[in-house]
From TrEMBL:
Residues 105-291 form the D-isomer specific 2-hydroxyacid dehydrogenase NAD-binding domain. It comes from Parapedobacter indicus. InterPro entries: D-2-hydroxyacid_DH, D-isomer_2_OHA_DH_cat_dom, D-isomer_DH_NAD-bd, NAD(P)-bd_dom_sf. This is D-3-phosphoglycerate dehydrogenase. Belongs to the D-isomer specific 2-hydroxyacid dehydrogenase family.
Amino acid sequence: MKILANDGIDPLGKQLLEDAGFSVDTTHIPQEELAERLQAYDAITVRSATKIRAALIDACPNLKLIGRGGVGMDNIDVDYARSKGIAVVNTPAASSLSVAELVFAHLLGGVRFLYDSQRKMPVEGATNFGGLKKAYAKGVELRGKTLGVIGFGRIGRETAKVGLGLGMDVIVSDLFEAPKSLPLVLSGGITVDIPIQQVEIADLLERADFISLHVPFIDKPIIGAAEFAQVKPGVGIVNASRGGVIDELALLEALNSGKVAFAGLDVFDNEPTPRTELLTHPKVSLTPHIGAATNEAQERIGEELANLIIEHLKK
């Protein structure tokens, strides 16, 4: 059987598949050519770039499996594929810690103005060192602050654990009942259960010093103008989930008014061409959708994806 890893796969995953007797092609086929060229393969693996929609599925009746390396599957018409007898699998747990750590890269950079300092030091550092030092003199610590986590799946829980490890108070909001506590593994293998408080989203918005979103793509933003009106003045907000869950125009207004102190964005409405006003905003910390882009996460994703493919196609 032939597998197209259209958005790449970790060498470990590729080796596992080849050892199991599969042929793995890591050549990237452009989206507009997939309808014709995918017919030569039995399965395809993707990340977030390649889209697998109903029309493509109809054009490739040979397809037996679609694998998503990562969590969200909004780039795949999952129900339609399964209605056609095609297996659809993903790797929801493999990248959780990597995404959570990126959230805190944005938060730690945000509270110490690193996003702006990195821009200005190369330009003004030699001529306005004292001025910049004064401009960035009012940083804050995360310890003792309240982190609000919206969406409490695997990534939300890992984010909460990192926050707890830094001494933050964590409150969460989710459509489903959250666990009452989270296990925090300390050095030496000691595990401590830390209580978690679940609240309504309105309560979270009013109480949180920092907000991190971990929700799937939906038809309308979770955070819009009405929600920004409810947040604490000076809140920091991070989105490493999906573009579209924050109203970007409302975010810009909140940043410009000072209601939001800073935003950390790894995802955007119009990927791969994000809104220029966000890319150039002095209060926005930016990354290009790299939440799962660590060596460790990619190895785990490749291994888990390979094992799922082997399990489904070797039946």
